[in-house]
Write a structure and sequence with these properties.
With about 300 residues, this protein is an all-alpha fold. Helices cover about 55% and strands about 5% of the residues. Helix 1 runs antiparallel to helix 2 and helix 6 packs parallel to helix 10. The termini are far apart.
């Protein structure tokens, strides 16, 4: 069996347990392709580490190792010729939610402008990255949701986002400016993108993969001067989603408490959260609202009752 066959068996076993396992599957298929090219019949620690280190950051390399190590453990049970890399072979890591570094509208424009300089010149690829980055910034879509959009998902009422993280379809409304940008992209997409069903495709006609979108965003952010060199913190692709949520929350600052509650419910629905409470952590990066919460708490403590 090839490593690709092994990886497919492992993915199938995880999905049979009810796991989505989509992101892990993408990582494993990329590793399996690397292993097959090398002629690795079994998982080899040196090969895994060499492949993981080609990631764009230390954190991503550690994530690759963690995912492939799961495959190695699975295979080692049946055949001890498969090596299991040490979990800390690329450094001991403890995942902590990274603080957001939300790019400003001007920084987003710079990144989108850099996307238009991508190659091949005159192909669909530059327009694809330019448009998909702008779409995530103005809708808060997850990267897998944006890259998974099909041509038929764009309707008169907005975007139908299917097979989401919570396995629930949802309709995401579009501002007229976003709709115009997508319509302009579709003109080029239908002329140059081939017969495929995906909305966002590359010059090759293949759909954009989530990991490739993330890596390209980081490279574009560095070229635009918005992010530092490798190992330095800076805006991530997910920060576009975070920024959308923060700006939406800041838009309800002058509203009443009841209106804020309705606003949070609408935001949670747009973001595709299973429960509204999952949207509240975005308050951490909204200083104005946090100040209001602090002031309201202080008044409650001083007066014994909440003042509106």
């Amino acid at each position: 069996m090839t490593m690709t066959d092994h990886a497919k068996d492992y993915v199938a076993s995880r999905k049979a347990l009810g796991l989505s396992f989509r992101e892990e599957e993408r990582v494993l298929m990329r590793y399996a392709e690397h292993a097959d090219v090398r002629g690795d019949e079994f998982v080899r620690t040196n090969s895994v580490l060499a492949w993981a280190r080609t990631a764009i950051s230390v954190g991503e390399a550690q994530r690759r190792l963690r995912i492939v190590r799961g495959l190695a453990v699975f295979l080692h049970v049946g055949d001890d010729r498969h090596e299991v890399p040490h979990r800390d072979a690329l450094g001991k890591s403890k995942w902590i939610r990274p603080p957001p570094r939300i790019p400003s509208p001007e920084e987003i424009r710079k990144i989108m402008a850099e996307a238009l300089s991508l190659g091949p010149a005159g192909s669909l690829t530059p327009r694809t990255f330019h448009t998909i980055i702008g779409l995530i910034a103005c809708t808060g879509l997850r990267r897998s949701e944006a890259t998974g959009l099909l041509l038929g998902d764009l309707g008169p009422d907005g975007l139908l986002v299917r097979n989401t993280k919570n396995r629930r379809d949802r309709l995401v409304p579009l501002h007229e400016s976003a709709r115009r940008a997508l319509d302009d992209y579709l003109v080029v997409r239908k002329r140059q993108g081939g017969p495929g069903e995906h909305l966002f495709v590359l010059a090759s006609g293949q759909p954009v993969r989530p990991g490739y979108l993330t890596d390209t965003f980081i490279l574009l952010a560095r070229k635009a001067g918005v992010r530092g060199k490798a190992g330095e913190p800076g805006p991530r692709l997910h920060d576009l989603r975070h920024g959308f949520a923060v700006r939406a929350l800041e838009g309800c600052i002058s509203a009443s408490r009841k209106d804020v509650g309705r606003h949070m419910l609408a935001l949670s629905t747009t973001l595709g959260h299973a429960r509204p409470v999952h949207s509240y952590w975005y308050l951490e990066a909204t200083p104005v609202l946090m100040r209001q919460v602090s002031e309201a708490t202080e008044k409650l403590h001083m007066t014994g009752k909440e003042k509106t």
